[in-house]
Amino acid sequence: MKMSGGVEWAIHCCVLLSQADGPVPAPRLAEFHGISRTYLAKHLQHLSRDGLVSSTEGRVGGYVLTRPAEQITVLDVVLAIEGREPAFRCTEIRQNGPLPASPAACKRACGVARAMHAAEQAWRESLRGVTIADLAAGVLVDAGPDTFVRLREWLSAS
Amino acid sequence: MKMSGGVEWAIHCCVLLSQADGPVPAPRLAEFHGISRTYLAKHLQHLSRDGLVSSTEGRVGGYVLTRPAEQITVLDVVLAIEGREPAFRCTEIRQNGPLPASPAACKRACGVARAMHAAEQAWRESLRGVTIADLAAGVLVDAGPDTFVRLREWLSAS
DNA sequence: GTCCGTTTACTCGGATATGCGTTGTCCGAGTTGCGCTGG
DNA sequence: CCAGCGCAACTCGGACAACGCATATCCGAGTAAACGGAC
């Protein structure tokens, strides 16, 4: 069970976008994080499809958050990148074999699937409790109060 | 983020083993669930490596749970199959690019990694709260009280 | 009848191919700012 | 000096290969029961 590495990229990009004044193009985002330009663009497309970011074309185009950072949760980003399919998918093997479960018993989901579903729900709830704004505030605490000032300077300089 | 399908198989096998009287060989387990013999054997090897099941060779060999079903959690099985590596692994991209985070700021884990880690911890705690015995009890409720009786009959018959 | 050796069938374990998904890259369509030209 | 037009550069979006891992399989090593024969 491995999460896509693009999730980390997307979250960091959202934190950056929350502190930018205007649109930020994908190559700029990639350069700032030292990652692949083209591959990051692919992930940003997923964010755009889910309506988390808005893309503007043209000479001074780029990506902008569609909502305030306080209203974007980490779960939103994860679902946009990884998709909404649950990690565990029940194949109903209890209906196979010489002693298959009766159709009446299968009206309720099997216990294994219920346990997995509950765990995934807990995971989602935890991620839903953290917003991009929270992460941005954490960066300020860890890296110093002038971090985003220098970020904006770099954005306007290049 | 997709979980291995072998996890479902392994959990169902553990539930079955918790109700068996003696060792159950892998081909029997596979036949009962209508799944691949050889591939299931591979997953059972993982359970054996982690000490969840004990294997006995020879003519009447097979797999037996090493602990009572009340002391085996779903998390144990998931970790045995999927491995103990966390789904999210931080690549520390905050240290890249033109404005890298200072080494002092990196003494603490980055906020993204902390959020992911907390979510995964919640997921683990949820899975840790369900035991193989709980699942077996759920099967009794869903499929009827005589389910395991018929299971034992089938095991001794074939 | 009992004990022992051999056979035999059955088990697990690791080493070995294959298909699909994530990773990574590229090029084309579209849009906007900028510069030039004409009035 | 100002307005209109063409250009060019920059942007995003989807289509195109390559690697890695999960999937699926096979065969060999080992073991314990069962059988046959000798005592």
Describe the protein's topology.
The structure is a homodimer of 158-residue chains.
Chain A: H1 6-19, H2 26-33, H3 37-49, E1 53-56, E2 62-65, H4 74-82, H5 111-128, H6 132-143, H7 147-157
Antiparallel strand pairs in A: 1-2
Helix pairs in contact in A: 1-3, 1-4, 1-6, 2-3
Chain A binds a DNA duplex (39 and 39 nucleotides) through helix 3.
Keywords summarizing the entry:
mainly alpha, Arc Repressor Mutant, subunit A, two-stranded antiparallel ribbon, DNA-binding, 158 residues, Tscrpt_reg_Rrf2 (chains A, B), 2 strands, TR_Rrf2-type_CS (chains A, B)
Task: Choose one word for the global shape of chain A.
Answer: elongated
The end-to-end span of chain A amounts to 39 Å
Broad CATH class of the domain at 5-84 and 131-157 in chain A: Mainly Alpha
Major sheet summary line of chain A = 2 strands, antiparallel
Give the strand content of chain A.
5-15%
CATH superfamily of the domain at 5-84 and 131-157 in chain A: Winged helix-like DNA-binding domain superfamily/Winged helix DNA-binding domain
Order of helices and strands of chain A, N to C?
HHHEEHHHH
| Major interchain interface with per-chain residue totals | A-B, 61 and 61 residues
| Overall average pLDDT of chain A | 95
In DSSP terms, counting alpha (H) and pi (I) runs of 4 or more, how many helices of chain A? 7
Q: What would you call the quaternary organization?
A: homodimer
Structural class computed from helices and strand pairing of chain A? mainly alpha
Cα radius of gyration of chain A in angstroms: 20 Å
CATH topology of the domain at 5-84 and 131-157 in chain A: Arc Repressor Mutant, subunit A
> Major sheet of chain A: order of its strands?
1-2
